[in-house]
Here is the input.
Amino acid sequence: MIGFYNYSVILTYISLLSSVFGMTQAIHGRFKTAIFCLALSGLCDMFDGKIARAMKNRTEDEKSFGIQIDSLCDMVCFGVFPAMICYLLGVRGIIGLIVIAIYCVNSVIRLAFFNVMEAKNALVSENGEKFYKGLPITSMAIVLPLVFMVQFFIPDWAFRICLYVALLVVGILFVVDFKLKKPKNSTLAVLVAIVAVALVIMITFTQYRIEFRAIWPWMQMVRR
Here is the structure.
């Protein structure tokens, strides 16, 4: 068996499996479950790095493997998965496909750039503080649940516009050159609480209407 197997990558794999399951739910129009899976993936990603760093006896190969596997899983969880949800929710047509393309391409660029900088240990300030360059790709696990929550308060057409804007703005911020300090535990706790509140509101109140024609092509493919 090739690869490196230890507890430092378990959360990364759980994050991936959550997103893959979420994709199957989105295909069948179960968007609440899909958004919940996205948020769960974000929660796992939030702590997998901390667990990996707590393992002091990792070899250099194990560290490099962890960085690569994390980015590969992030592309699925926070690149492809959110784009798929938004497409199924109505980000369609020429403009929609352009927005999705920008988001996905910038996701890949952002992750590859992070890998290069992390390998050179270039994302550490002079006083030893770690920072990000550009918006972290995991930010979509916070943004999309919040956007999905507001559809309870606004018309469907306005909700779809919010999806377009969220994908485009977040995708652009992936590659904008600005420094963002890595959040401390207190900040992470606040973010988790905000997403949790959004999920509670989403699960309790939202009544997003699922158009059968939006998932019919997928069902036809399955039957074939």
